[in-house]
Write a structure and sequence with these properties.
With 297 residues, the protein is an alpha+beta fold. It has helices at 12-18, 83-95, 213-227, 244-255, 261-268; strands at 28-40, 52-61, 70-71, 74-76, 101-108, 119-127, 141-161, 164-177, 180-193, 196-207, 241-242, 272-278, 288-292.
Length: 297
């Protein structure tokens, strides 16, 4: 330790000896994970190529608070963990897999986001290939299911003023799994001024989604939509071998809109390299299979 003294004449050793951590309120820290996969939609016609759906793993809460509602997988950070280590541990416990794409999303710190106490959530995005994936609910959960994600823009308005603008967007979020439908309406305000920019998300309506997780999910989907346009992040949702049509479907379900085949392949063909393999699906013309070609850093 150094011997420099502060304004009270204390060395660092003396300061630490008299420091009382309990003098300051402390939040609990949790991790919440938006775990996405891309799965084939069930088709009755075997001759029709299956479409893709963007899936999100949700856990039905078996205890208070928010008992009976659906939440993102996650848990509290242990004293000897970083938030990333906690996220990796929770991810393994929920999915049984390791070495998958994990990215920190945002820290949600509203003091009233959890009715128990002040709980800050360090949220993460995980992308996983759902093939051969066995998901089980943890000890404090009743059920674990993959939900189809639908995020649509309801309204959008931009106001300009001297030195900046404010853009307000309202989103409709729906999560579908069998007969279970979860929904929420979220507003997003983006303010740009000469002093910088500010983002604000607010839950307007909520039906069945625990805590502020509707906000986290919306933030995560919008992050994905932004990043797929300039990174190779979508490859983390692909199996080892895939067709270019399947790759385009994954981009479409993330972006929430259809894409024109020719421009898509011109822009994203560098993400895949051809192999000598072909599909062998009954009822379909064989298609060439490709594999991931990661972008260099």
């Amino acid at each position: 330790m150094n011997e420099f003294k502060d304004k009270n004449g204390l060395t660092e050793e003396q300061f630490l000896a008299s420091y009382h951590p309990g003098d300051y309120p402390k939040p609990s820290v949790a991790v919440d994970m938006a775990i996405f996969s891309a799965a084939d939609k069930k088709e009755d016609n075997y001759r029709k190529l299956p479409e893709k759906e963007l899936k999100l793993l949700m856990i039905k809460r078996g205890g208070h608070p928010c008992i009976g509602t659906w939440a993102l997988p996650g848990g509290f950070v242990e004293p000897d963990e970083t938030t990333e280590q906690s996220a990796l541990r929770e991810l393994h416990e929920e999915t049984g897999v390791d070495n998958i794409y994990l990215e920190q999303l945002y820290t949600f710190s509203d003091p009233h986001r959890d009715p128990r106490t002040w709980v800050m959530s360090c949220s993460y995005i995980a992308l996983i290939n759902s093939e051969n994936l066995n998901v089980e609910a943890g000890d404090d959960a009743k059920d674990a299911q993959w939900f189809t994600v639908k995020l649509d823009t309801v309204s959008q308005h931009t106001s300009e003023y001297d030195g900046g603008f404010e853009k307000n967007t309202e989103y409709s979020l729906k999560l579908l799994s069998g007969d279970t439908v979860l929904s929420a309406v979220i507003s997003h305000s983006f303010i740009r001024s000469s002093n910088g920019s500010q983002n604000k998300y607010e839950i307007i309506k909520n039906d069945g989604i625990a805590f502020d997780h509707a906000k986290i999910i919306t933030y995560a989907v919008l992050r994905l939509r932004g990043k797929v346009q300039y990174t190779d992040i979508a490859l983390n949702l692909m199996p080892e071998y895939f067709t270019l049509t399947q790759l385009q479907q994954v981009y479409e379900i993330i972006l929430g809109k259809p894409l024109i085949k020719a421009p898509f392949r011109r822009k994203y063909c560098m993400l895949a390299e051809p192999t000598d393999k072909q599909t062998a699906d009954a009822g379909h013309r064989p298609s060439q299979l490709f594999r991931k070609k990661w972008m260099s850093d």
